[in-house]
Specification:
With about 375 residues, the protein is mostly helical. The chain contains 24 helices and no strands.
Length: about 375
C-alpha cells in the first residue's frame, strides 16, 4: 500500500514548513528539544505568525499538528549529519532543507543542493558527496580541492581502524583514489563494505540497486537496533510484498516505524499481523514509545491515545501479565479506562525522568535501546 497524504494534509504541511522556517520562530525554539514540551507556549508564537487568510480554527489546529513531526524530522536530519556538517547546524542551513508533501525531508535532493552550493565548506561538501554516493560530485569536488587538503584527506583516512559510519564511507572513497580497490567494481565493494546508516541508506547507490540488493541492505540495518526514523525509511523503501516479509522477520523494528507519519493509520493492522511474533520486551518497548514519546508530549498528528487503547486490546493476555509488573502499567491502565482525561496529571507518570517531559523522552529512548540490546545479546548467546 502506498502512503498518499490527503490534499488537506498536503496544504497544512506546506504552511507548517513555511512557519517552521521563520527566523523568529526558530529563535524561540532554540531552547526546546525536538519533541517540544506540551505547555502550549510555542503555539502562541505560531498563531501570531499564521497567515491572515487562515482564519478557521480547525485549519490552524491541523497546521500546528504538523509542527512537532516537522521539528522532529529537522532535528533527526541534524543529528544524522553532525559528522558531515558539524554539531552547530543553524537556521542558515535548516531553512534550506527540502520537504516532501508528507512532511518528511527529501534527503537525497537536500544533499544534492548542499553538495552543489557554497553554504558548506569544500571539506564538508566532499564528505557529504561520499556519504550519498554522488560519484560525479565526489570526483568534481576532489579535483577542486587544494592539493594540501587532498593530501590531508588521504593521510587521515589511510588508517585501517578508528572509523565508523559516515567516516568509514569517506574512507572507502579515498581508498579508490589510492587504487586499493581497482580490481573490484565500486558497487560490489560498497554493497558489501559500506556502513549502511541513516545517511548512506538514502543515497544514490541504493536508489540504483535492484530490489533484491535493497532488501539485503535493509536486512543488515534491521538486524540491530535503529531509530524509528531509519526504520521508517527502510519500510517505505521496500516493495509492498517485501514489506510483509521484513515485517514477519523483524516485527519490532518494522512495527515501530509505523508510529511515524505517514504510517500511523496502518500500525494496528500491522501489529495484529505480528502479535504472536513479538516478545514480551517488544510489547513493553512499543508501549513506552507510544506513551512516553507520543501521548505525554501531546503529539497531534495522530490520535495516539486511541492508538494506545487499540494496541492494548490486541496484546496477548500472557504478555499483558508481564506488562502489569512494569512501572508503566498504571498509566496504561488509566488511559485504557479513561482516555485523555488522565493526562492533566501526566507528571505522575514520567517514568524515566521527573525533571520534565522532554528529558523523560530522551531517557525513554535510552531505556529502549538498552532493553533491545539485551535481547539481541541474549539471542546471540543462545546461538552459541
Amino acid at each position: 500500500m502506498l502512503f498518499v497524504p490527503s490534499l488537506e494534509n498536503i496544504a497544512a504541511v506546506s504552511v507548517a514548513v513555511i512557519l517552521y522556517n521563520d527566523y523568529e520562530i526558530q529563535q524561540s525554539l532554540k531552547e526546546t528539544l525536538y519533541r517540544f514540551s506540551p505547555d502550549e507556549q510555542w503555539k502562541n508564537v505560531m498563531r501570531e505568525k499564521m497567515p491572515n487568510h487562515i482564519v478557521s480554527i480547525p485549519a490552524q489546529q491541523k497546521i500546528m499538528s504538523f509542527l512537532k513531526p516537522i521539528n522532529y524530522e529537522a532535528e533527526k536530519w541534524k543529528w544524522h549529519h553532525r559528522k558531515l556538517i558539524g554539531q552547530d547546524i543553524d537556521w542558515r542551513i535548516t531553512s534550506k532543507l527540502l520537504w516532501k508533501t508528507d512532511g518528511t525531508i527529501a534527503r537525497f535532493e537536500t544533499a544534492n543542493f548542499f553538495i552543489r552550493s557554497d553554504i558548506l565548506d569544500i571539506r564538508n561538501r566532499f564528505k557529504l558527496a561520499c556519504s550519498y554516493w554522488k560519484k560525479e560530485s565526489v570526483i568534481a569536488i576532489w579535483k577542486k580541492m587544494p592539493e594540501s587538503l587532498c593530501r590531508d584527506f588521504s593521510e587521515t583516512y589511510s588508517r585501517d581502524d578508528g572509523f565508523e559510519g559516515t567516516d568509514w564511507n569517506v574512507k572507502i572513497w579515498i581508498r579508490w583514489y589510492t587504487e586499493e580497490y581497482t580490481k573490484n567494481s565500486r558497487k560490489e565493494i560498497c554493497l558489501s563494505s559500506y556502513d549502511w546508516n541513516a545517511v548512506s541508506l538514502q543515497g544514490e547507490l541504493p536508489l540504483k540497486s535492484t530490489p533484491e540488493e535493497r532488501l539485503e541492505i535493509i536486512r543488515r540495518i534491521l538486524e540491530w537496533e535503529c531509530d524509528l526514523h531509519t526504520a521508517r525509511f527502510c519500510v517505505l523503501f521496500l516493495k509492498a510484498d517485501q514489506r510483509l516479509e521484513v515485517l514477519k522477520t523483524y516485527p519490532y523494528q518494522v512495527l515501530k516505524s509505523y508510529l511515524l507519519s505517514p504510517c500511523q493509520s496502518l500500525f494496528i493492522e500491522k501489529a495484529n499481523y505480528v502479535r504472536n511474533d513479538l516478545s514480551e520486551a517488544h510489547f513493553i518497548c512499543l508501549l513506552h514509545i507510544i506513551y512516553c514519546q507520543r501521548v505525554v508530549p501531546d503529539w497531534e498528528d495522530s490520535d495516539y491515545v486511541e492508538l494506545l487503547q487499540e494496541f492494548w486490546s490486541i496484546i496477548p493476555n500472557y504478555h499483558k501479565e508481564s506488562v502489569k509488573r512494569e512501572d508503566i502499567y498504571r498509566a496504561i491502565e488509566l488511559i485504557v479506562a479513561n482516555g485523555r482525561s488522565i493526562l492533566s496529571t501526566e507528571n505522575q507518570f514520567l517514568f524515566h525522568s521527573q525533571q520534565n517531559v522532554e528529558l523523560n523522552v530522551t531517557k525513554c529512548c535510552e531505556y529502549i535501546i538498552r532493553r533491545i540490546e539485551l535481547i539481541q545479546l541474549f539471542n546471540i548467546s543462545e546461538e552459541f
